[in-house]
Amino acid sequence: MRRDIFQAIADPTRRAIIALIALQAMTPNAIAEHFQTSRQAVSKHLRVLTECELVTPEPHGREIYYSLHLERLQEVDHWLGQYRTLWETRFNQLDNVLSTLKNPKT
To answer: 42 CB contacts (<8 Å, ≥6 apart)?
Structure first.
């Protein structure tokens, strides 16, 4: 089943897993140590992330290490980029209003 990347990152646990393995590849057991949940639950999250090609499993002996596939996150960045300009413009306008209110004579 092919899942949508946005569906995958909608879950806070999956986002936390992404943050963990962004630093280094980890086994499901090592990932599970960071959560108050079972290894099976972590494995289900890893399956979703793998189906979305956000993580890549790589066998090393008897262990499987999961690493982040950064290129897939570019899809999220690209989608957010269309709104980034809008947010920046509005924040700049807010900064100008606040500066004017703070220093009315300038």
So the answer is: 17, 28, 31, 32, 35
